[in-house]
Amino acid sequence: MPRPPRSNPKTRTRAIELRKELTPAERKLWAVIRNGQLGVNFRRQHAIGIYIPDFVCVEKKLIIELDGSQHLEQKEYDEKRTKFLNSLGYKVIRFWNHDVMNNMDGVILTMLQALDEKL
What is the pTM of this model? Predict the structure, then answer.
């Protein structure tokens, strides 16, 4: 029996568009985590349900979200989204864009610790 789709066609199409429009912080983090550089594979702008997380390690069920100032005004939406993703077994970690741009070592260390916890 075929596996059910993880998202709808509209969400998948939007994910493809977002992959072409990375923010500077997303571009910088992607350069460090792509191609298994942390020992696991991440996908960028990977559709899950109606949501499109920034980076997803499907194998470890870890989601990395990069937040800009707009997230200060959408706290309820982010909480609802995180709750949905948690219900599927994903752990969601959020970093401010500023942290990625100015403290990449700290961001990577936090990610590695989360990956170790998911063993």
Answer: 0.85
Domain tally for the chain? 1
- Domain harbouring 20, CATH code: 3.40.960.10
* Per-residue model confidence as pLDDT tens digits over 51-66: 999 999 999 999 999 9
Q: Comparing C-alpha atoms, which of 48, 40, 52 is closest to residue 88?
A: 48
Smallest CA-to-CA distance from 67 within 57, 81, 83 is with 81
Q: Residue 101: give the domain boundaries.
A: 9-117
Q: In what order do the strands lie in the sheet with 91-96?
A: 43-44, 55-57, 62-67, 91-96
In a domain, 1, yes or no: no
Alpha carbons 43 and 84: distance in angstroms, whole number: 19
